[in-house]
Design brief:
2 copies of one chain form a homodimer.
Chain A: H1 2-8, H2 28-52, H3 59-66, H4 70-76, H5 80-104, H6 109-124, H7 129-134, H8 142-169, H9 177-194, H10 203-216
Helix pairs in contact in A: 2-3, 2-5, 5-6, 5-8, 6-8, 6-9, 6-10, 8-9
Chain lengths: 222, 222
């Protein structure tokens, strides 16, 4: 029975031990190539959206930038809306990777939070930062908008959990963890509006200045 | 000579002492009415932009909302782009009014800054908040974009000056005043993305939570 089931969906069978004559032989490399090409399409789309704006960027321009035809683009991502969603997801993946690294670090939660602030800042000024910050405002269909909202909520929850862990381990004082997460995310997200690559501070230096403010506050001796 | 000069531009002469028979008599009231109607147009535009998005909101819809014809709208504001600019300016006027009040208050600069944070939060969640935050992203012409940028820079400068005054009077510790202003503005501006009128905290309570974080920071006992 399992063999019959396999026969009915041969595309899921990589057949890595098949002889070269098989049409499926060596399929891993083209698949990897397709993944790489898809990443290149998404990166080019992110840059086009950031430079020209989502509404002004056309798939025709994007195809020209990449030296392919428009139907070729559709082999990788099925349309402009999906393209923006994939850009959003690529940016979020950077933030999630940073979260995973920070959440596991064997230090006080305040230090884990501050390490995450550095990772977040890097993602915001990265290639997908613009799309991550603006995707929700671009009048996407209800389904994609909802998925983006849910993914953002997931990040917010994990950021809040880091702050709560700090209150629990004594490295962060008692505070409104939700509003603290919003203040932190706001300060970082706003970098997407003002940061320029020729700025006098690099993203890590900016993150360090923010950490300084959020760590000990502004109150002076008087 | 001055009289001749006056005769050549009679429209600048209000002739408040002229008899009622003059075509300029009683002109002040219609002018006030026009100002009020213009404000109503700008407010309706701000709400339409926020609800439908700038690109999706049409002047036809706006005219219908207000129960007037589209050419009537043009009597008050000469087009959609100018409408967005006026919305931006109306929001900024609220922030500027708050700044003027705070800058004059006879208290330590830290308290002046925190009072301004409350005023800023109120403006961000107000009718013109959306336009203020998003106007620059809507692909306005170069001239209007530049005016918006300059007006924003003006607010940033005054906010930074408040922080510098705090460092000078000892109520704010030595810090990177530029990055501190960006962190504060980011936290507040981001409210425009997440704040909902049915939220459990009102804008003043949110501002107070932010002030708490920025005042003494997050560092706990450990």
């Amino acid at each position: 029975m399992p063999q019959t089931a396999n026969k009915s969906r041969p595309r899921k069978d990589l057949r890595t031990s098949s002889p070269p004559a098989s049409p499926w032989a060596g399929r891993r490399r083209p698949r990897e190539q397709k993944a790489l090409k898809r990443e290149a399409v998404i990166l080019a789309a992110a840059r086009a959206f950031r430079t020209r704006g989502y509404h002004n960027a056309s798939l025709d321009d994007l195809a020209r930038d990449l030296g392919v035809t428009k139907p070729t683009l559709y082999l990788y991502v099925p349309g402009k809306e999906a393209m923006l969603f994939e850009c959003f997801r690529a940016g979020l993946a950077q933030i999630q990777a940073s979260l995973e690294e920070c959440e596991r670090a064997p230090v006080l939660a305040r230090e884990r939070l501050f390490a995450f602030i550095r990772g977040y800042a890097a993602a915001i000024v990265g290639d997908f930062g613009w799309c991550m910050l603006r995707a929700e405002d671009q009048h996407l269909g209800a389904a994609l908008s909802r998925r983006i909202k849910l993914l953002k909520i997931g990040i917010d929850r994990r950021m809040r959990a880091l702050i709560e862990a700090g209150v629990a381990d004594g490295s962060i004082r008692e505070c409104d963890t939700k509003m603290t997460a919003f203040a932190l995310a706001g300060a970082l997200n706003w970098m997407g509006h003002w940061y320029r690559e020729d700025a006098s501070l690099n993203p890590q230096e900016i993150a360090d200045r923010f950490i300084d403010v959020f760590n000990v506050g502004l109150r002076g001796p008087r």
